[in-house]
Design a protein that fits this description.
Order of helices and strands: EEHEEHHHHHHHHHEEEHHHHHHH
CATH topology of the largest domain: hpI Integrase, Chain A
Bound molecules: zinc ion
Strand content: 5-15%
CATH class of the largest domain: Mainly Alpha
Oligomer: single chain
Strand order of the largest sheet: 2-1-3-4
Number of strands: 7
Number of helices: 17
Number of domains: 2
CATH superfamily of the largest domain: Intergrase catalytic core
Radius of gyration: 27 Å
Shape: elongated
Helix content: 40-55%
Length: 409
């Protein structure tokens, strides 16, 4: 039974809408809508009885979560026969199901403008959390205790860094619930990231020699003999294009695998990410690369690196990972295990060596200047070398008048 939800404006409506007038989420998305904080109300029928009840919320996201919770329980908020013993003073809490709370959290995440790869990690995390709560037979978020969090955390098989990142997501989710009064307290406060989680992963870029070797290895890549229906055959040239984009944009493998020219490519500029200031951030690529990408677009449509019809980020990414690994193997011996992420590090190295300011590079890859200084210090040229390089670049296309100077003497 789906409930109907709308906002009912109060007499003292901040935006001045008429008392008892109604507005829907859809109405409020229209241009020029004035926001107010009148309460969102639900109406509908449970057990053949029609009722109207305020959700006590004024944000749609939170109201929807509560309403979903009521729908799942098939009763109006409040009393539940399965109230757990640990839910002290339930009056101050809004009872909400885990499904509704996690969905509301994901809705919030999707408004943050994260990169698709990051967003998909949040979804994976929520899936794991739901599997855990299902296995314990929990239906409501307030059934979770500190001990549950300890157990959940202890069950993660991940490495140190991955564990620390996942803990960050758990804390964010718990905080989200506490703020909305779905949880009484921060039950994840006791958890700490594993010792040594901040020791850097291998951030070593490829050397120029290694890059040349990898590009040459693309020439040795053999097409799969039998094309499978629904899948695109890949050649060494395809893999080269893929590598060039990683190398020239610093984008992650998943973002390149799902690259869409209609969304990312504009002239010589490639959209890399949303900046903190909500402005779009572009990187510049040379003509020859633009031409290669436009050629692909003519052949394959805007999703130039899609290897199958699947729109799944992980499916496309994994297929590319396998192909790149084949090329690495054809490329011979490497000092350190070659992984696709190293192209991103190489992008950083190349820009640093060119004297591009650290702050600019940090913005392009969406990292902080501090992290960059920490991990890439080795490739940051001395002040003098950087200045020289920037000056050389700045004067490279200026008129060269050396002969005249000589003749005037
Ligand atoms: Zn109002």
């Amino acid at each position: 039974m789906a409930l109907h939800i709308y906002r009912r404006h109060r007499r003292d409506c901040k935006a001045g809408y008429a008392e008892d007038s109604l507005s829907s989420e859809f109405d409020e998305r229209k241009k020029g809508w004035k926001r107010c904080d009148c309460p969102i109300t639900a109406s509908g029928t449970f057990a053949k009885k029609y009722r109207r009840q305020s959700t006590g919320q004024w944000e749609w996201e939170a109201a929807r979560a509560i309403v979903t919770s009521w729908e799942q329980a098939r009763e109006w908020g409040g009393g539940s026969p399965t109230r757990p013993p640990n839910a002290a003073s339930p009056e101050s809490l809004t009872r909400i199901t885990i499904t509704a709370a996690t969905q509301a959290f994901l809705d919030r995440i999707s408004t943050k403008g994260f990169e698709p790869a990051t967003e998909s990690k949040y979804r994976t995390f929520i899936k794991q959390l739901r599997a855990f709560t299902d296995s314990h037979g929990y239906g409501y978020i307030d059934q979770l205790t500190i001990t549950d969090m300890d157990r959940f955390y202890a069950s993660w098989p991940d490495g140190k860094r991955a564990k620390a990142r996942k803990l960050h997501k758990l804390t964010a989710f718990i905080e989200f619930c506490v703020k909305r009064k779905w949880l009484k307290e921060d039950i994840s406060a006791d958890l700490e990231p594993p010792e040594g989680h901040s020791i850097p992963a291998n951030k070593t870029p490829f050397t120029d020699e290694e890059i040349n070797r990898i590009l040459a290895a693309c020439g040795k890549f053999k097409r799969e003999r039998e094309p499978q229906p629904g899948y695109r055959q890949t050649s060494g040239e395809d893999i080269k294009d893929f590598i060039y984009v990683m190398l020239y944009t610093g984008m992650r493998i998943s973002d390149v695998a799902t690259f869409d020219t209609s969304l990312r490519l504009n002239g010589n500029e490639i959209f890399v990410r949303m900046h903190k200031t909500k402005k779009e951030l572009y990187t510049w690529v040379p003509d020859w690369l633009v031409n290669r990408l436009r050629d692909r677009e003519r052949l394959y449509g805007p999703r130039i690196f899609a290897l199958s019809k699947s729109h799944s980020l992980s499916v496309q990414t994994e297929r590319w990972r396998i192909k790149l690994q084949k090329v690495f193997t054809l490329g011979g011996e490497f000092d350190e295990p070659p992984v696709p992420h190293k192209f991103r590090h190489t992008f950083v190295r190349m820009l640093l060596e060119r004297g591009i300011p650290v702050g600019d590079i940090a913005e392009l890859i969406g990292d902080t200047e501090r992290t960059l200084l920490k991990y890439y210090a080795k490739w940051i040229p001395s002040r003098q070398a950087r200045l020289t390089s920037i000056l050389k670049e700045a004067f490279s296309d200026r008129p060269h008048d050396s002969e005249k100077v000589l003749s005037m003497r």
